[in-house]
What does this fold into?
Amino acid sequence: MVLVLLPLGLIAQEEETDAKPVKEKKSSSKVFTGFSGGMLLHGGYLFADDPRTVFSNDGLGSTSYWKGLPKSGLCYGLGGALRCHLINHIHLGAEGYMSTMPLMSTGSNVRTAWGGVLCDFYANWGKVRPMIGLTVGGGAMKRLFVPTDSMSYTPSGTAAGDSTYYNASYVKTPFFCIDPYVGMEIGLGNHVALIFRIDYMLPFNIHNKGLAEVGKQVTWDNFVKPSGPRLYVGIMFGKLKRD
It folds into this structure.
């Protein structure tokens, strides 16, 4: 009897052993659970402590003039994102945006472009997916100042006769940025979702306090202004729900 049962036991053990790799393969296939991409519109409020910081220009004329210049304002723009979904709880991908902050009635503005790698963690509450994440990347801030009248700029340490008269100033500042955000997706099916997001981008570079300092060597220990919160609204397409 033992000799009869022993082969049956070995056969059963082999079947169980053969079944394990199939189970592990099925489990490993759930690491990648979807993908998505789409476009987002945004609006926000940016601010600084000094108008000269906003325009990256110390030569803004007399104190009575530059103190009346704007140091905060609304911004708007658009961009997009591409994401992979991992283990049904992680988004990993890339994104990029362009944002414009109009200032004054002369055409002055601050224009910011940035992008980077994003990673966030999300939960599944039915059709609602709250998320919290971070984007790491870089970009550039372009500050255009157009005064109401032509102005003079005298670099420090030079004679008054060496003043430069200009009708506008333009400064481009590259930066490294960390962009924390929180958001929420509302599923409209397996392939479409609305997305709402709030972030506060933190750009770091040098403080260009005057036109003469534009060529200064880049360091990454200063906070670039203006900056502030932005609200994003968009739509995502793709494989948004795990089968």
Summary: The CA atoms of residues 154 and 161 lie 8 Å apart. The chain has a mean pLDDT of 82. The chain has three helices and twelve strands. The longest strand covers residues 169-187.
